[in-house]
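[Archive record]
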Amino acid sequence: MTSGTARSKRTKRTTAPPGSGSGSGPDSGPGSASGSPSDPDPAQPPSAPSPSPTPAPRTTRRINPRRTGTDTGLPHRRWWTPYLFLLPGLVMVVLFSLWPFVNTVILSLTDAQILRGGRFVGLENYGRALDDPDFWTATVNSVVYLAVVVPCLVLLPLALAVLVQRKVPGIGFFRSAFYTPVIASAVVVGLIWQWVLRSDGLVNTVFEKLHLISGPVPFLTDSTMLLVSAMIVTIWKGLGYYMVFYLAALGNVPASLYEAAALDGAGAVRRFLSITIPSVKPMMLLVGTLSAISALRVFTEIYILGGESGGPGGGARTLPFLIRQVGLGFAGETGYAAAVSILLFLLTLAFSLLGHQLSKGDEQ
């Protein structure tokens, strides 16, 4: 019994799991000195540790995010889903912008009229426009209109924005008052100015009462004065609109620049020329481009002030006014009007590219 019991104990010590530390065996007790197991039985070889199992390689499957929608978390998303949201806007652009432009180009190559179709005549309408004195009169009026209006709408709103930028009591009222003409209808504005500038209007009446003039000034009955009056109306109506542009640009100019310049002894004019203008120069180029495009498209002011003829003898007609005059009516020549429209588009594009080049040069 004693030998059998000793043999079973030795067998248990030999098959103990590897890594079992001192004092962890079943027969270790408080009386053992080092806690190490007894010598194994030489008749029984020690068991080798079992190797750890090798994990099987994981196969990864590539998932297309366009088909599963995992990139945005939306289930069942397809690659063409964003284009569904763009489709209504694209349809509107094609129907009301791209197709009318293409149709105008095609129409300018025909001799079409209002009540009948036309035949293809090539560039005949463009040659006719270049030989038409009315076309050149309208072109000169449009360019002169641009040359006068654009500098005024670049500089005057900037000066106005500098004034209303100051935080003083009641400045909000003046900002609203300056912006009121922008939200007013162009027809209403034209009628108001027609009442102000006519022969028995407000301006002539005041000047006569002050004995500044001997007779009424022909603001609306002279071609040159009519063009100048339309320019005044355009400038007056655009001051508040472009003032908002400059207010946004002036809000990004650090106040520390003005404080440092004031400490150096720079006056108000010097600070305006050295700090304000360089800081808002990109906005000035943008305002110049937008006002140039608007000046070339002016029609309402001249139509309201000068009537359907565009002033005495049509001397104040601009290119949009000429397009309307030759294209409407029972004998309207839509082919010729389309050709003049394309020439106006090219003139507008030239000024737009000029403004773009100036802005690129400023950035470089």
